[in-house]
Amino acid sequence: MSQQESAAFVRACGVSDLKDDGAISVVLGGDEVAIVKTNGEVFAIKDWCSHAAVPLSEGDVDGYTIECWLHGSCFDLRTGKPTSMPATVPVPVYPVKIEGDDVLVAIEES
């Protein structure tokens, strides 16, 4: 069974709540998560810049990258890996699936 099939998904928001090339912040299981829509796809990434601890959801989305508004660090929405300095530490990304208008995200329990 794949990780996505075994994970417990919870509703994060509606697809209709998302703007193209934009992000919103939601709280799931006590974690702040940025839900991002770009290139017709939806991604979930921890809403926290690993360099400056500010919300990524307040930054710009460009393709598969989200940019921290404070110092310009960019992160790949697919992997969470930083793609530009000053950040060097990845941030968690979470499995996403769409059911109707619902965006479902799996947050692993610690």
Structure in a nutshell:
By secondary structure, the protein is mainly beta.
Protein model, in words:
The structure is a single chain. This protein has a single domain, classed as Rieske [2Fe-2S] iron-sulphur domain (Rieske Iron-sulfur Protein, 3-layer Sandwich), CATH 2.102.10.10. The protein is globular, with a radius of gyration of 13 Å. It starts with a helix and ends with a strand. The protein has 110 residues and is mainly β. It has one helix and ten strands; from the N terminus they run H-E-E-E-E-E-E-E-E-E-E. 4% of the residues lie in helices and 42% in strands. The strands form three sheets. It has a four-stranded antiparallel β-sheet, with no helix packed on it. A three-stranded antiparallel β-sheet has the order 1-10-9, with no helix packed on it.
Q: Class, according to the CATH hierarchy?
A: Mainly Beta
Q: Might you state the CATH topology name?
A: Rieske Iron-sulfur Protein
Determine the structural class based on helices, strands and strand pairing: mainly beta
Helix content: under 10%
Number of domains: 1
Oligomer: single chain
Q: Residue ranges: pLDDT <50 for 5 or more in a row?
A: none
Distance between the termini: 20 Å
Q: What is the succession of H and E elements?
A: HEEEEEEEEEE
Proportion of residues in β-strands? 35-45%
- The shape is globular
Measured on Cα atoms, how large is the radius of gyration?
13 Å
- Record field, number of beta strands: 10
